[in-house]
Amino acid sequence: MHVVTENSPETLRERELLNRLTWALRELTANLMRISRGAGKPVSVVVQSAEVVSIVREYEDLTGHGAPVETVSEALSVRVDWEVLFNLPEDERKRRRVNERVIAGALQVAASRLLDQKTHATRGDDEMFEGMQRIQEVREERIKARQAAVRLQKKPKTAAKKKTPIGP
To answer: What is the pTM of this model?
Structure first.
């Protein structure tokens, strides 16, 4: 059997534009987040934004429609890939899941502060602090598990029995 996959120049160009859009969105978003926390490059925001708009327009000209919503969502997602989590030991999965909760809460707080949305900021605070509390619980579980493993490895020393001589 002979399988042939044919990619038209338009299909290849579309994929290239979506890849460029993904990267441009990530660069812009990361820079905005860094600026929000007191770092980043404010001078680059306009150039990065123009790059995103340029790629979207080029994509629209090529395809006749806007960029897929999934591309934008996936480009900006900071969540851990669940397939990666699936292959980790249970304690590591727990740790990463609670870290995700802290990150989600912190992002909610930051976004809400930018828009002066006190109710949303409070929910983000709650989520973040619940995650931090769970992190402590997971950490304590890990410590107890390690201590139990160490206790199992240490075998109690038994006193050697004295040999009594047989006969004179």
So the answer is: 0.74
